[in-house]
Amino acid sequence: MPDEHQADGSPEPAPGRAADGRSPEADNAGNQATGGERDDRAPREAGAADGDGDATRDEAAEREHERERAAERFREYTRDPLAEEQSEDGPTDLAAASRARRSTRILFDTGRDLNSFDRSYIRSAHIGDIHLRMDAHQSAEGMRSGPVPEEELRRLRRVHVEPEGYTALRNALRARRLLVLGAAPGTGRTSTALALLDEVTALAVSCAGVEPPTRPRVLRVDPKADVRGLATSLGDAPGGEATEEQPAPGYLLELALTQTGSPPPDAMDLDALAAALDRCQGFAVIVVPVGSAANPLLAGRYGMLCLPVPTKELLTTRLRERLEDHVAEAGGNVPDDGHRVADLLSQAEELAGREDVRDAVGLKDLRPAEAELLASLLAGHLLEDVSYKELLTGCRSLAAAQAQEWFVGVDRVAAAPPAEGSAVVRPGTAALFHPVAFRIALAVLGGASHSAVAAAAHLLTWELSVQTDPDSTPARPLFCDDPESDLALSRGELVDGRVEVAGTEVEAQLIWYRGSALPAAVLSEIWDRHFPVRAPVVRWLRLLADDPRPQVWMRAAVAAGELCVRDFDHGYADLIRPLAEATTARRRIFAATMIDQAAGHASHRKAVQHLVDEWSRQGTKSLRWTAAMALGYGNAAATTEASLNALARIGGRDDGEQLAVASLNVVRLLALRDSATVLRRLADWTHHPREAYQDLGLATTVRFAVTRVAEVLDDEPGSPLGDRGDWPLALALAATYPELVGPMADLLWTALNTPRSQEVAMDALDTLLRSAERGDGTEWTRPGLAALLPALTAEEHDRRRLDWLLRRMMNDPENPLPDAQARSLWRLAVPPRDRTGKEERHG
Could you give phi then psi for residue 289, rounded to 5 degrees? Predict the structure, then answer.
C-alpha cells in the first residue's frame, strides 16, 4: 500500500489529535448532551413508565434541533455583511474599492495633501531687482491695445523658446498674412504669436530698407474688438496702409470666444481680413483658446495649433537669463562671467531636480509664466536672496496659482445684471460651467476612466447650473463635448490602463492631471475661496456615493474626506453624518472612508477617534455599522487594542446583529501591521465565557480563512502581502510570517472542533485546500498550505478529519478534486515519519 493512500485510491485516514481536546462549546453544553446520551442507553428500572423512553428521545431531538439552529445562526455571522446591498447595482466590491483607494490616496499623501496649500501662498516677493507676482496670471482682458515696445520684443527674442512646428507656423503666416493660432491659455501662445510677428515684420522692414523703423512694428488690438472691425480699420486707422518707406505693422488679436457680444468670426470674415492685410502688406495673428467654439476657426485655412514648449528648455532659458543678468550687474571679466553663469546654471538645474523641490512644484509641464517664476526662485536661492523654505513655499504656489486662475470669476458674466436695453444673449450655463466642472471632476476622480470623469463632470455641470439659476431648468447639450479641449484646458492626460468590471479587468483610457499638485490645489481653491460652490459639490458627491463602480465612489470618498479636513464642522454636518446614517451599505462605507481620510491628518486624528468611539458605544445601528467599517482601516482608534475593543462592543451587542460587519473589520485589521495582537485577541474571544465573544472569535477565524488579501489590504506601501492579492489571507500570512502559523492553526482547530462552527469551518478548509493550484495546474498557495497544514493536523484525529474531507472533495460530483492533487495535499499535511508509522497500523 502507498504510504499516502489506501487500496481504493483515497487518502489514508490520519491519527486524531489529543482525545481530551475540547471546544469552548463543550464546556457549556457538552456535559448535558453526554448525560442525555448516557440516560438513553441505561437499563430502565422496574415500573418505569413506557413514556419515559419517548420523553428522552424528544429531549435528544430537541437538543439536536438546537444545535442545528445554533449552526445556522453562526452561518449568518460569517455571511458577507455587504450582501444586504444586493440590488440591480450588485454588491459592493471591497477588493476593487481597496485598489481604487490606494491609487487615489497617492494624490493626497502627507507630502501633497490639501493642508500643504494652507497659508502657503507667496503673494509677492523681491529677488534682487525682480518683482515676482504669485497670484493668478494676468488675463488677456487686462491687456490694453497699442504698440508693443521694442524693448519687449528684444527681450522676447532673447528668451523665447520655439515650440515644435514653429517654422511651419512662420511659413504659414508669411504665405497667408493671417494666422489663427489655437492653444490652451498660459501655454506661451501669446509669446509665440509676438515672436512670429516680430520675425515677419522685421523681415518686411529689412526688405523695405528702412532703418530704424518710423512707426511701431507690432500692435496689440483691443481684446474687445472683433475681426470685422480690424479689417475695416486697416485702411482707416493712421499707419494702416503700407507706404514705400515701411510696410504696415503686425497685429495681435486675442479672442476669448466665450464672452457675450458679437458672434465668432466666420470664414468670410477671415478672408476679408486676409485681403485687407495683403493690400497693406501687413500681418495678423489671432490667438484663440482651444475648444469647441474655436474648432471652426482652427479647421479653416488659417487655423493652426501651437504646441506647448518643452519644460526643460523653457526652464533652462529662463534660468540662464536670470543668472546672466545677475552676473552682468556684478561686473567682472567677460570670460569668467561665462564660466560663472555655466556653474550657477548647473547648480540651479541640480536644485530643480531635488525630490522635495519636484514634489513641491507638483507639475509635469511648466508653462512660460510658471517657468519664469520657478527660475526666479531657484536663482534667488542660489544667490542667497530666498531661503529654502521660501523656495518650497513658492514652488507650491505654482499649482495654487493655476487653480485660482481657473476658477476666479467664472460666473461673473452670468451674475451681473443685464445692461438696460441690451439684446446680448448670455452664454448658456452648460458652456459656462462645463470646463470648471470637468476640472473638479478630474481632481476628485483622477485615475478613473475618461468616460467616468466626463459623466461626473456633466452631473456637476447640472448641479452648478441649478445653483446659479434655481428657477430655470438648465439645458443639457448632448453633442458639446470636446475631449481634446477638455484635456488642453484642464492640463489632463490620457493613459492606457485597465479598470475592473464585474470582478475582471478590461482595457480603458484613464485620465489624470499632468501634475500631482493639481488635484489638491483645485479642491482647496473651490472649498476655501468659493463658499457658495460647496452646496452643489456636496450634492454631487452624494450622487457619486451611489455610483456602483468602485473607481468612482471610492475615489470620491477619499477626496470628500480631504475636503472635510479643510472644514470638519461643515463636512461632518453635510457629508459624514448624513451618509453614516444612510440605509445603503455603500453610502456608509463612503462615510467610513471619509472618516479614515480625516484621521490620517494629525490635526484631526483625536477628534475622529473620539467620534468613532462614541458611535461604537452609543450610536444608532447605522452609526455603529459605519464605525465598524472605519475601525477596519486602522486609524479610527489610538491603538489596535482600542480598535478591537470597539469592534467587540459592536459585534457583541443586540444578539450579534452586527457581528458580521465586526468580524469583517477584525479581519481587515489582521491584514495590517499588528497581526499578532489581533490573533491573541481572537484566542481570548474564543475562550471567553460569553457566547457572543466566542461567536465573534469563531466567525472571524472562519472569515480570515476564506477572505482574499485584496479584499482587506488597503494602502500598506511595500507590504509583503501585496503580491499575494488573490491568496486567502490565512495562507498569505502563513507563507509570509512563520511565527503566526501556530496561533492561526490553533484558532482554525478550535473552529473545526466547535459544533456550531464546524460545518462552515470545514467549508473554509475545503476552500483553502482547493487553492493549492490554479486551474491551469500552476502553483498558487502551496507554500502557505505547506506552512499551515502540518500545524493544523498534528494529531491522529485531525488527520482523520483531513482524510474524510479529501475523500469528500474527490467525490464531489460538480468539482471533484484530482487524485494527484489529493495525494500532494496529503503529503503537505502529514510528515513522512508519521506516514510510515501509519502504514504499520493500517496495513
Answer: -75, 145
Grid look-up 434541533 returns 65
For the stretch 417-470, pLDDT in tens is 544 444 444 456 777 888 899 999 999 999 999 999 999 999 999 999 888 878
Q: Residues 281, 355: one domain?
A: no
The one-character DSSP state at 26 is: I
Q: Report residue 838 as a C-alpha cell.
A: 501509519
The CATH number of the domain holding residue 197 is: 3.40.50.300
- What percentage of the chain's residues is helix, strand, coil (to nearest 5)? 60, 5, 30
Q: Are 256 and 367 contained in the same domain? A: no
Residue 345 domain-assigned?
yes
**Distance (Å) of CA 215 to CA 148, 240, 242:** 11, 11, 11
Give the residue carrying C-alpha cell 463636512: 571
Q: How far apart are the C-alpha atoms of 498 and 372, rounded to whole Å?
A: 38
pTM of the model: 0.82
**For residue 302, what are the domain limits?**
140-160+162-308
- Do 269 and 183 fall within a single domain? yes
Nearest to 788 by CA among 771, 810, 807: 771
pLDDT tens, position by position, 501-544: 877 889 999 999 999 999 999 999 999 999 999 999 999 999 99
Same domain, 155 and 297: yes
Is residue 156 located within the same domain as residue 291? yes
Q: What is the pLDDT of residues 150-159, one digit of tens each?
A: 888 888 888 8
The band of 231, judged by pLDDT with boundaries at 50, 70 and 90, is: confident
Rounded to 10 degrees, the C-alpha dihedral 557/616/648/601 comes to 50
Residues 289 and 326 placed together within one structural domain of the fold: no
Q: Considering the domain boundaries, does residue 266 fall inside one?
A: yes
Q: Within a domain: residue 587?
A: no
- Torsion of Cα atoms, 336 then 338 then 343 then 346, to 10°: 180
How far apart, in whole angstroms, are the C-alpha atoms of residue 273 and residue 297?
Answer: 13
Element of type H or E holding 305: strand 303-305
Query: Does pLDDT of 89 surpass 60?
Result: no
Residues 177 and 304 in one domain: yes
Comparing CA positions, the residue from 254, 173, 244 lying closest to residue 209 is 244
**Quick one: pLDDT band at residue 404, thresholds 50, 70, 90?**
very high
Instruction: Work out the widest C-alpha separation in the chain, in whole angstroms.
Output: 144
What's the domain count of the chain? 3
- 325 and 300 belong to one structural domain: no
Domain boundary among 566, 591, 609: 566
Classify 332 in phi/psi space as left (phi over 0), alpha (psi -120 to 50) or beta.
left
> What would the grid cell of residue 750 be?
478550535
Q: What is the helix (H) or strand (E) element at residue 283, kind and residue range? A: strand 283-289
From residue 748, how far is each of 72, 760, 808 by CA, in Å? 19, 11, 19
Predicted confidence band of residue 587 (pLDDT cuts 50, 70, 90): very high
For residue 219, report the phi and psi dihedrals to the nearest 5 degrees.
-125, 135
Strand 250-254 to strand 283-289: parallel, antiparallel, or no bridges (unpaired)? Answer: parallel
From 274, 308, 342, the end of a domain falls on 308
Residue in this structure with the C-alpha cell 505547506, named with its chain if needed: 786
Name the residue among 811, 804, 765, 833 with its Cα closest to residue 11: 804
CA dist., res. 809 & res. 798, Å (int) = 16
Query: At which residue does the C-alpha cell 455610483 appear?
Result: 547
| 590/375 Cα distance (integer angstroms) | 42
| 228 within some domain | yes
| Integer Cα distance of 714 and 721 in angstroms | 11
Helices (H), 619-706: 621-631, 640-652, 659-670, 675-686, 691-706
* 671-705 pLDDT tens trace: 988 999 999 999 999 999 999 999 999 999 999 99
Say if CB 590 and CB 580 are below 8 A apart: no
Give tens-digit pLDDT for 167-183. 999 999 999 999 999 98
| Phi, psi (degrees; rounded to nearest 5) at 99 | -65, -40
